[in-house]
Amino acid sequence: MTSVLKEQTVVVIGGSSGFGLATVEMLDALGARVIVGSRNENRLAAAKAAFPALVTRQVDITDRASTERFFADVEMLDHLVVTAAELPSGRLAETNLDKLRPAIESRLFGSLHAVQRAVPVMRTGGSVVLFSGQAARKGFPGESMGAASCGAIESLVRTLAVELAPIRFNALCPGSAWTPVFRAFFGDHAEEAAEKFGASLPLKRLARTSEIAHAVVFLLENTYVTGSTLVVDGGFGVT
Ligand SMILES: NC(=O)c1ccc[n+]([C@@H]2O[C@H](COP(=O)([O-])OP(=O)(O)OC[C@H]3O[C@@H](n4cnc5c(N)ncnc54)[C@H](OP(=O)(O)O)[C@@H]3O)[C@@H](O)[C@H]2O)c1
């Protein structure tokens, strides 16, 4: 069966790594026209080398002017996916708020900058997928700002699904997977953390990035889903 995404234009901010890159790979295979944005030129070049049909462009979505420049050449699009976010952590009593602020600046304001530029050029039938995380749903010491930023995304899509209908807005809450974010978060203990955390889940392993990409594609393709958060976490939320 041919995907409705064939020949549609999808912008993926964060598409040079991890879940974003896996999503780009799936969209490319389905015949979508994919425009990838992120900050690091080398990672963009590597994505382009792997999938030559991609259009790649640098953007820092925490910076409104940079986001405006990125979208200036996008005349029309069908869908926007934003996976990009920073995850600074630290216990509130011991941490300067300036260290934690990038969580909100990237995930919440970054997504809002992108949505504001994408919506005016979105074709009828368009949709947006924003990324949340498990911190929105369970308490982890040191993750207050990650939790607040992910929770903000889950509430944001409910409101924007009404305010900007018929554009569909959904959030994806992924489980943990072995990506640069996971490795950076656990540092020297990443392998040990991956093994321990994976074993604690009902499905006994971390997510594959392709499993998260598959869920993004579902949210883009299914024309009756809006205002929802799709949780794809190997059962973490029910333990
Ligand atoms: N991996 C996990 O275990 C896990 C679990 C739960 C939730 N999540 C969430 O899933 C999302 C994706 O995670 P991931 O594991 O795929 O991370 P990743 O592999 O580090 O990918 C993040 C992507 O976003 C880009 N990016 C970051 N900040 C940006 C900015 N300000 N402007 C533009 N691009 C930016 C990065 O490229 P540049 O650095 O070159 O800009 C990269 O392409 C994140 O929101 C994360 O919090 C991940």
From TrEMBL:
InterPro entries: KR_dom, NAD(P)-bd_dom_sf, SDR_DHRS6-like, SDR_fam. The keyword Glycosyltransferase does not apply. Pfam families: adh_short_C2. It comes from freshwater metagenome. Residues 8-181 form the Ketoreductase domain. Belongs to the short-chain dehydrogenases/reductases (SDR) family. Keywords: Oxidoreductase. GO terms for molecular function: oxidoreductase activity. This is Unannotated protein.
